[in-house]
Structures are given as C-alpha cells and as structure tokens.
Write a structure and sequence with these properties.
By secondary structure, this protein is an alpha+beta fold. It is built from 7 helices and 21 strands. It has 2 domains: about 300 residues, 4-Layer Sandwich (Deoxyribonuclease I, Chain A); about 55 residues, no CATH class. Helices cover about 20% and strands about 30% of the residues. The strands form 6 sheets. The protein has a 6-stranded mixed beta sheet. The longest helix has 25 residues.
C-alpha cells in the first residue's frame, strides 16, 4: 500500500492536459529546438577544401568542399598546406582534410554507400522523434555537429523520416583539421532565415601557432512571426587532458558571449538560444564563469542567462559517458527573454528541456553497455548504431493567436 501524493498527481494531470492541448494545437503553438552530435558523419567521396580568398569569410562560397579528382577544374595556386585563415586573402587554394581518409571505401573503416545511408537513416529516425510527445511533429530547428559537408545535411533533410518536413539547410565549412562542421536544419514553412554567418574562434598553442576548431554558426530568422537567433557550437575537445585544454574552451565561451552581447546591444530583448557540444559540463568554468546561467526559471536574472540542463546534470543525467562516468556536454543556454517567471506564454518561451535517451539508443552489451549506442567502436561497424552522444531538445511554447 502506498499514499498518493496529491500535488504530484495534480502536476501529472496538468502536464497531460497541456500535452493533449498542444497536440491538438487548439490553445498553444509549440516548436521543438533540437541539437545532436552525430559522431563523424562523413560521405564516401575523397574531397578537399577549396578556399576562395577573394570572397569574404561569411560568403557560403568562400570555403567549399570539392572532390579531389576535380581539383584540375579549379584555378588555384600550387597546393600549400601552410596556408591558413590569416594568410590566404586574395588567394585560391586547396586544403587537405585529415579524418576523411578513414571514411573512404579503401580506408580503415571500409566506409561505403550502404553504410553511409544506414547512418543517415538511423540519425533521421531519431531526429524525427524529438519532442513529438508534446508537439506531434519533428523539430522545427535542428542543430548538428560533426557533419562533413552540406551534402550530408541535404541527405539527412531528404531522408525518408524527414523529407515531408521540407527542411532547409545552413552550413559553412570551417578550418577544423578533422573536416567536421556545424550546421542547422529548419522547417521552411515555419522559419525564415534573415542572417547566417560563421564566427571563428581564435585559439593558440603555447608556441603561438593557431589551433583550428569549429566555427560558431549563427542563424537569425523569423520563427512563427518572432525573431530568434540560434548559435550552433562544437567547442574544442578535451584531447590532451581537461585541464590543459580548458583555456581553449574558455576562449570559445568568450567568443559565444561576445555574439550574445552584440545581438543584445542591437536589441536588448533579443531572443537567443545557444546549443551545442560544449565539451564541458554545466558546472564547468567555461559555462559558470563566463555566463553564470541560472538553472531554474525563478533564479534567472533580468538580462542574464538560463541553462535548463543544470538541474538535469545535478540529477546525474548525461549525454555521453567515458570510463563509466557521465558528462552532460550537450546543452542549451538562452537569454532571459526566453524565460517566463509568471507563466506568460504570450510569445515564445522555453517550456521543457530533455535529454533523449530512449532504450534503443543505448548499447546493450560490451564495454559501452548503457552508454549511447555508437556506430563505431574503433573500426568496428554496427549497423544498428547511432552516435556516441544522446540528442537534446527544448520545446518553445506560446499561446496561439
């Protein structure tokens, strides 16, 4: 025999009622914003980066991917691996990509078309499910990281599970040595892009040399009549150790904070959602010291920041694990303008945020049992694998007009 907690029962019934109302869309308009680290999603084409230094950095054609066999078709200077972001202005050059060698038919992973589309379909199935228990639809906005090319994003958008949602794609190549980038999918019927650009992160090694990482992708647009900016991130990894690599993530955090401040200077009430794999937890210095975000609505300061992942982290929820320890690297950080302390949903506000960790996304055996069911363990391929991260999503809610 057990006692019924009346307050808990009321809360559950209220959430059920609200969910039914949302699905019926007779009281609220809702939109899921999702982020997914898709674990080295490469195509099967041996390619290089072609950089046209006569164009501005934020021009989509400044840095494109081309098949290696097509290099003779481009008017480039003699290949020079030493060319960098700082010294290619006015030049047209070819840039090699390191990690892609593994993801070729003759590479270590014996990557081929069948395996590639297996992964595309696996990832798309997951994306199509994010937030549907509340909204009844796939996410309106999806940030992705570890994407090799815009073509990979196009294939995800055109997959069987997602094609009906008519996603648009925003993608810029970065100078990341691995050849992986950030990108954004958006439902064109509900979101109109007004500005999109990459923001490079300038970090340097102890010898003063530039260390390249993924750019922060900014996409501003109109979501169901409201202007909202999304920042997609994939901060420097902990390779070499958390402590020694920490300054690189601190610099990434400062770069992202500067983007926030610039947008808020133009519009003090700007609605901004940063998402990404920060390679740090909600309590890490890069988040806590730079943003000092509140983890609950009532504690969010005016003109401050809100991190809905903080309460989840304190409960032991994670998005990836390493040596049986969980981390919550995949997060959302928003402006206070997206938080409602008095349940005011007259315009879009954050309603709920979750880690999507369904059982089918967890490994059932071996060293990774219980962890995200990755497609690759070294060079061992698993057709039923997805990614080494769980996706995360937040649901925006407002009263229907």
């Amino acid at each position: 025999m057990f006692k019924i907690n009346k307050s808990l029962t009321f809360l559950l019934l209220f959430n059920l009622f609200l969910t039914l109302s949302l699905n019926a869309q007779n009281k609220y308009t809702s939109a899921t914003v999702a982020f997914y680290n898709v674990e080295n999603t490469f195509d099967t084409i041996k390619s290089v980066g072609y950089i046209n230094g006569t164009l501005p950095y934020n021009d989509p054609n400044y840095h494109i991917q081309i098949a290696e066999k097509d290099i003779p078709n481009y008017n480039t200077e003699e290949f020079n691996q030493a060319y960098t972001y700082e010294n290619i202005k006015g030049k047209k050059i070819i840039r090699p990509l390191i990690l892609q060698e593994e993801f070729l038919p003759n590479g270590n992973k014996r990557w081929n078309t069948e395996k590639y589309f297996q992964k595309i379909n696996n990832l798309s199935k997951v994306i199509s499910e994010l937030g549907t228990d509340v909204t009844g639809s796939a996410p309106v906005i999806v940030g992705l990281c570890e994407i090799e090319t815009k073509g990979v994003m196009d294939d995800i958008a055109n997959s069987k599970a997602l094609k009906k949602y008519n996603y648009g794609v925003v993608h810029f190549n970065s100078f990341d040595a691995r050849g992986v980038d950030n990108g954004l999918l958006y439902q064109k019927s509900r979101f109109r892009v007004t500005e999109a650009k990459p923001h490079p992160i300038f970090i340097y090694g102890t010898d003063g040399s530039r260390k390249y990482t993924r750019d922060i992708l900014q996409v501003t647009g109109i979501l169901d009549g409201e202007e909202i900016t999304f920042l997609v991130n994939h901060w420097p990894s902990r390779s070499g150790g958390e402590s020694s690599s920490r300054p690189f993530r601190m610099e990434a955090a400062k770069t992202m904070k500067a983007i926030f401040e610039d947008l808020k200077e133009k519009n003090p009430n700007a609605k901004i959602i940063a998402m990404g794999d920060f390679n740090d937890d909600p309590t890490s210095a890069s988040i806590k010291d730079i943003f000092n975000p509140a983890g609950d609505v009532k504690s969010t300061k005016d003109n401050g920041y809100y991190n809905p992942m903080l309460p989840l982290f304190k409960k032991g929820v994670g998005t990836l694990s390493y040596r049986d320890a969980w981390n919550l690297f995949d997060q959302f950080i928003s402006t206070s303008s997206l938080v409602s302390k008095d349940k005011d949903y007259s315009s879009y506000r954050i309603y709920k945020t979750e880690v999507y960790n369904k059982d089918y996304l967890k490994a059932t055996e071996g060293a990774y049992k219980g962890s995200p069911n990755r497609m690759w363990s070294g060079d061992t391929y698993r057709a039923n694998g997805y990614s080494d991260h769980f996706p995360v999503y937040t649901i925006l809610l407002k009263e229907a007009k």
